[in-house]
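Lecture notes, part 5. Sequence design as translation. It can be helpful to think of inverse folding as translation between two languages: the language of shapes and the language of residues. The source text, in structure tokens, appears below.
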């Protein structure tokens, strides 16, 4: 019994066999590109800004992903030691730039946990608070402190990482270490648009439990509709195909597209209000 997931035993024979056919995550990666209509998201962002709330594009994409996961929970599975697990929480990892006390640029990883009651506003608040805390020049988060400890002694990194990997495969890795690790996550995302770079297909790490990696690229012309004066945000997605079937992946991304097309559905409205909105969006 792992502290971060429950063994899936009701999967079909074919799905259960895939982790044995493809025991490595890099052998089971599929690649797709999704697009978010930037004009739709921009209108929503501007509307919320007039109400005094600043919501970035990445937060909208994360909120859409989280809401789609709630409708399609199998996307939050992971493979460890050729066995399928359902993760018992939802979290997202990403890297931010920070400035050291000496003025040098640096990077640090952040891991944010979402809960069932979260909507676009609570998700936005959690991300803002995590980013603000970790951009403080004098601040090192627990992940940074753990990494600094590992590399303080020359032979320590190889020995400890080997031990951590072994414990992870055996399900013995403590939850505290799992919570520190950005590689044990429901989703890893990178916003390359923030540094004016094209999206890339980023590998899912072999270490840890990352099953999906999303890369946001700088906006491109909406060539799909022929409206070249309008922009789309490309999302390069790498997925571990072993965690669920292609049909289930298709249902999940259909949900993501619906939320990105109608971001008002991401708000924490009542069940009746959401039902009315959903009918209007059909």
């Amino acid at each position: 019994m792992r502290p971060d997931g429950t063994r899936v035993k009701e999967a079909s024979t074919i799905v259960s066999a895939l982790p044995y056919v493809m025991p490595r995550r890099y052998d089971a990666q599929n690649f797709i590109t999704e697009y978010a209509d930037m004009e739709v998201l921009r209108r929503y962002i501007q509307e919320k800004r007039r109400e005094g709330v600043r919501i970035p594009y990445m937060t909208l994409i994360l909120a859409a992903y989280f809401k789609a996961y709630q409708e399609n929970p199998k996307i939050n599975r992971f493979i460890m030691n050729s066995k399928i697990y359902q993760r018992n929480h939802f979290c997202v990892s990403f890297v931010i730039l920070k400035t050291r006390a000496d003025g040098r640029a640096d990077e640090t990883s952040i891991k944010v946990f979402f809960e069932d009651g979260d909507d676009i506003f609570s998700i936005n608040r959690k991300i803002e608070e995590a980013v603000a805390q970790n951009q403080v020049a004098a601040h090192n988060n627990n992940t940074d402190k753990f990494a600094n400890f590992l590399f303080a002694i020359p032979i320590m990194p190889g020995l400890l990482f080997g031990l951590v990997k072994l414990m992870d495969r055996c399900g013995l890795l403590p939850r505290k270490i799992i919570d520190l690790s950005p590689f044990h996550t429901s989703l890893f995302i990178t916003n390359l648009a923030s540094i004016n770079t094209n999206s890339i297909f980023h590998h899912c790490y072999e270490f840890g439990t990352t099953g999906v990696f999303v890369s946001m690229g700088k906006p491109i012309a909406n060539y799909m509709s022929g409206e070249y004066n309008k922009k789309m945000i490309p999302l390069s997605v790498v997925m571990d195909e072993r965690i669920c079937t292609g049909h289930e992946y298709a249902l999940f991304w259909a949900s993501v597209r619906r939320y990105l097309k109608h971001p008002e559905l991401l708000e924490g409205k009542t069940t009746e209000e959401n039902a009315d909105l959903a009918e209007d969006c059909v």
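The translated text above is only one of many valid answers, since several sequences can fold into similar shapes. The longest strand covers residues 227-240.
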